[in-house]
Design brief:
The protein is mainly alpha-helical. It is built from five helices and no strands. The protein is about 60% helix and about 0% strand. The longest helix has 26 residues.
Length: about 130
């Protein structure tokens, strides 16, 4: 069997600072990951969720080890133009969108194990 490269396409538009929202792209990647795992769950929603979370936990552990080794959080900043002022533009982007990041963090903390159904609130805030 020959190898081939798989490519997924995501539509994204940069903001006024030429930064692509990493949260939105991560959400799209997660949606595709969930679809890719569905056949392995054989129709079992709980198995599907557990399989996804096992892979997430493995990825987080790997990322944490890399961060610890590098003494920083490895990251990708996707921006337009040249990288000479990318850090400045990213700082403006994160400051301008801090409320959305806080909302995601608060939503995750509130829902941690509670099964409280905040999905509709997240959707109302433009997070889905």
């Amino acid at each position: 069997m020959s190898e081939r490269i798989l490519q997924f396409e995501y539509e994204a538009r940069p903001d006024e600072d030429g930064i692509y929202d990493g949260r939105a792209l991560a959400r799209a990647l997660i949606d595709d990951a969930l679809k890719l795992l569905a056949p392995y769950a054989e129709g079992c929603r709980a198995c599907h969720d557990t399989l996804f979370l096992a892979l997430v936990n493995e990825a987080v552990a790997h990322y944490s080890r890399a961060a610890e080794a590098a003494n920083e959080l490895p990251s990708h900043v996707l921006g337009t133009e040249h990288a000479t002022d990318l850090a400045i533009r990213m700082a403006r982007h994160t400051a301008r969108t801090a409320a959305m990041t806080r909302c995601l963090l608060e939503w995750a903390e509130a829902c941690n194990g509670a099964g409280c159904g905040h999905a509709s609130a997240a959707s109302r805030n433009g997070l889905q």
